[in-house]
């Protein structure tokens, strides 16, 4: 109040007009004092907000959001599956994605009796478990139906795809689906060689093979006299995934991929 009195004494009350335009001295003094104080507080708040005070800090925090995972900091976080803190090639951790095992099954199956995609995945997981492979519950079959492609149901890893014996099949998902792989997928879950055909119904790109009957989605006796797409495990070109259709009562293997 002393400061206000000093200002009024120095400048007079006529410098601050009433917002209502009232010309009376008492109203003018009262209004001026009220207006000046109110305006000053409002301006101060606006200044604090626009000047990077409390509101500015809050806004900054909201726009920043949670920090993104940093590959190479030695901490596994976000979508990282590994982070060994280095960029050493061939050590099992590439771009913070661990190697994924891919194998051909040691067992053979008739195409119409796989139990669909779910049943095929279960077969992969069962064989991986019996062989003592880590994370065996994550394995899925490289198998498509007309409505569900391998590209849609399998993880697109940034890491390498390797055989049980450590040989590299592809450097990442893009390489795996490029049409050419580095090593034939002829090693099963027990590290034994199986150079035969595998049920896939899938092109090397990961998409369903056009013209394949998919043995009635790999789960129907009515598919007994039909055909399903197969791949050649001894090939490193696109035929590794799709070579030709085979009778659904034939017994072929599966490719299984760790997720």
Short description, anyone?
This protein has helices at about 1-10, 25-50, 55-65, 115-130, 150-155, 175, 215-220, and strands at about 95, 95-100, 100-105, 110, 140, 160, 170, 195-200, 225-230, 245, 250-255.
Descriptors for this entry?
29% helix, alpha+beta, 7 helices, elongated
Plain-language structure description:
About 18% of the residues have low confidence. Strands 3, 4, 5, 6, 7, 8, 9, 10 and 11 form a nine-stranded mixed β-sheet that branches. Strands 1-2 form a two-stranded antiparallel sheet. It is built from seven helices and eleven strands. A hairpin with a 5-residue loop joins strand 6 and strand 7. Helix content is 29%, strand content 15%. The termini are far apart. The protein is elongated, with a radius of gyration of 35 Å. By secondary structure, it is α+β, with helices and mostly antiparallel strands.
SSE blueprint:
Elements: H1 2-11, H2 25-50, H3 54-64, E1 93-94, E2 97-98, E3 100-104, E4 109-110, H4 116-130, E5 140-141, H5 150-153, E6 161-162, E7 168-170, H6 173-176, E8 197-199, H7 214-218, E9 227-232, E10 244-247, E11 251-257
Parallel strand pairs: 3-6, 8-11
Antiparallel strand pairs: 1-2, 3-11, 4-11, 5-11, 6-7, 8-9, 9-10
